[in-house]
Amino acid sequence: WIYTFHMPLFFFISGLFLEKLVKKPIWHVVVSRLKTIVYPYFLWSILQELLRTAAGVRHQPLSQLWEIVYTPLMQFWFLYVLLLVSMACVLLRKLKLPVESISLLSGLFLASIVINLNLGGWSVLYMARVYSLYFVAGAICAKYGYLEAMAQRRSTTILRGAIAAFTLLTLAVLLKITPIPILNVVLAFTGIAATLMLSMFLDKAHRFSFLQTWGQRSLEIYLAHSIFSATAAAAAYKLLGSDYLTVEVLLSLLAGMAGPLLLYQACQRWQLMFLFRL
């Protein structure tokens, strides 16, 4: 259910800030990408693989770790593809190409899946083909103020929209229609819209301020969550066996959220913020 839209949602949110990047000098954009994407990508890829090696769950020799230069590992593909897509869009906008035209290009890029267009052996291009459309969609949404317009509606209307969209998404998963390529895009945008509307409703309710902290610390949670959640899951499985799967999943979820937040606080206290960004 969550995999139908959560990665498209991350790209969409990132795309909301495209025009802010375009307004800055290109050297400033490159430096900011190096500090906030490239640096944590390499640091946490290496850190995670060292820990996996120590735990005996990495089956490749560490001598091959340099391959992260062109082949991202596990969940860190997101940072790699985000860097590629965002810089490509910034450069196209710097060349005065309208965001609408970039949207058309990204749509055609995605549609090339239908004709099974071979992009070569670099897996990153295939992931960029799938997710660039959502990044550009976020940029278009920001340009025309669609989120601001949606936020002006009444709270009850926004909540009903979120419930309806999540219901459609749930039915699609239950009916097992998610493998259909074209519907995948529709369902992804449905999940994006549902999440945005739910976020607006919660913001208007003024009762869920802790969610703002989660959003502000999203980079730290993303970088460290796998280490904490995997450790908690392994420990819970060893202690409880296979009969308490629900409990193990919940413990893994809590560890994946709480662990990075506690680590962030510790890094703040001990002046170790270089673990997350330069």
| Measured distance between first and last alpha carbons | 35 Å
Radius of gyration: 20 Å
Number of helices: 12
Helix vs. strand class: mainly alpha
| Helical content class | over 70%
Describe the protein's architecture and organization:
By secondary structure, the protein is mainly α. It is 73% helix and 0% strand. The protein is built from twelve helices and no strands. It has helices at residues 6-15, 18-22, 26-55, 77-94, 99-111, 123-144, 146-151, 155-174, 181-205, 210-216, 218-240, 245-269. Helix 1 (6-15) packs across helix 6 (123-144). It is globular, with a radius of gyration of 20 Å. The two termini are 35 Å apart. The mean pLDDT is 93.
Question: What are the key terms here?
Answer:
278 residues, mainly alpha, single chain
What's the helix and strand layout?
Elements: H1 6-15, H2 18-22, H3 26-55, H4 77-94, H5 99-111, H6 123-144, H7 146-151, H8 155-174, H9 181-205, H10 210-216, H11 218-240, H12 245-269
Helix pairs in contact: 1-6, 1-9, 3-4, 4-6, 5-6, 8-9, 11-12
Short précis:
The protein has 278 residues and is an all-alpha fold. It has 12 helices and no strands. The two termini are 35 Å apart.
